């Protein structure tokens, strides 16, 4: 069974789960040849006893459209995470969690999966796009940012801070990285950096 890459983005009201809540998350399931086969997203009710972090709340105040988008049609976290697991298990392929950065997004998704479902279809591992870019570009980790990535890696998707939009955008970026890594010529040599990120 081949792998299927679940590009995932989360929106939260603080830096860690538990004291703070995951407000929204979205996953876009891609095959290695960049076919978007399915998506999943949900806006969640906040955790009982949790509260927004002041700095995160300050940032959200600058993003009224994204805030409104993640506060519509709220779902109970347990119901949403169980539906998410069912969706993952319905996909044809071994699921691989992919995110930018995985250290943040996977933290929330894994915590919510274990808290509300008691299992993770991803086990306890995730693929970090920045780390993968470091290997493909043969650069240091802190140099493997989006602004230094080759411009042809980026498709024309918006980055809206709406979870599913950003998951789709970053999934396409990851698939372009995969293609670059598999090409004989490589992707980094003699390529101007992407200047707008």
From TrEMBL:
Organism domain of life: Bacteria
Pfam families in UniProt: Rv2179c-like
InterPro entries: RNaseH-like_sf, RNaseH_sf, Rv2179c-like
Keyword terms, alphabetized: Exonuclease, Hydrolase, Nuclease
MF GO annotations: exonuclease activity; nucleic acid binding
Descriptive protein name: Exonuclease
